[in-house]
Write a structure and sequence with these properties.
Length: 111
């Protein structure tokens, strides 16, 4: 089902083996787990915490309750008010980093 370098994801009832390096971020919405690549959104049959465990030895961090991001895909980040930050990914998407996770983000980037 999975290997250390790939995650099994689904699109249109077809299974794909997605290289972990191609994942920009993973998000939980309405009890479903979505895996975002540069131009495609897949669905995973795992829960977000299971994906987080699977990716724990790679370059992924949790940035809020619903989102895990590939730090290698973060282009920049800046304050967004109320102690939160906004991370801009290489594909132009913006994600909110919660106050509880800002410290981890700063540590990863040595700020």
């Amino acid at each position: 089902m999975k290997s250390p370098q790939q995650l099994t994801v689904y699109l249109d009832n077809k299974a794909f083996s997605l290289p972990i390096s191609d994942i920009f971020y993973v998000e939980s919405v309405d009890l479903k787990t979505f895996v975002y690549a540069e131009h495609t959104v897949y669905q995973a049959k795992l829960k977000l915490y299971e994906v987080e465990d699977f990716l724990s030895n790679s370059e992924f961090i949790r940035i809020n309750r619903q989102t895990i991001v590939n730090v290698k895909r973060i282009k920049s980040f800046a304050p967004a008010g109320n102690g939160r930050f906004q991370a801009t990914l290489a594909n132009g998407e913006n994600l909110i980093v919660s106050r509880q996770n800002v410290t981890m983000l700063k540590e990863v980037f040595g700020v």
